[in-house]
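Proteins fold reproducibly. Take a sample protein:
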Amino acid sequence: MKRNQRTCRVIGTWVLLLAAVTIFNLGCASMQTEKPKTLSLTERGTVLFLDKYEFKRPPQNWSLMKNLEGGDFELGFLLMEKGEFPSQTTFMYDEEPYGASQNLEKRAKYYCTRFLFNSGIEARVTKQEKATVAGNQAIALSLEGENPNRNEKAKSKVYLVKKGNRIISFVCTMWRPMNGTYAQEPFDYFETFVNSFTFLKKDFYENFEEELSKQGL
């Protein structure tokens, strides 16, 4: 009888411990901050990207590309198209385009020497004009280039945008085999993306510059 009572006490103790651990874990889970959705819809027909940017996204057959841990760009979209490789189009928002100059003209000149360089394509500028993006001064570049050795060519539209003391960019590139034809629709989606793009928060650099200004530096 005493053995049964001891067994019951041991079992009861373990049950209480398990219950306490479960309650503790549930409490921790409830206290954890829920990660925001990468994209969330608005009533305005736009989407929010991590509550940092608002824009009109392309159709659902465009895949979201995101890089949240540092890299060549933070967000963009990819469309894989039917046909011989490489039939695809990408466009993206890039906080750190090639170059360091804060002058738009100088930055554009250097940018063109580096753009698509790693692909073996020497892109040539077919059009350059002044523009306005999100209320900021910008330069719009149209570029094209080929790499016969890899049987591919590319057509691009680039916006270099003056934002405070920095320059950011929006880039759309359409890839085709040498015998392929370019389409206009993807570039139309890109223009909608750029023209609807809104910055919802100050970025790190803007906050940093604001602090320096407060300190009189």
Notes: Residues 1-33 have pLDDT under 50 and may be disordered. The chain has two domains: 1-32, 39-214. Residues 2-31 form the longest helix (30 residues). The CA atoms of residues 64 and 95 lie 17 Å apart.
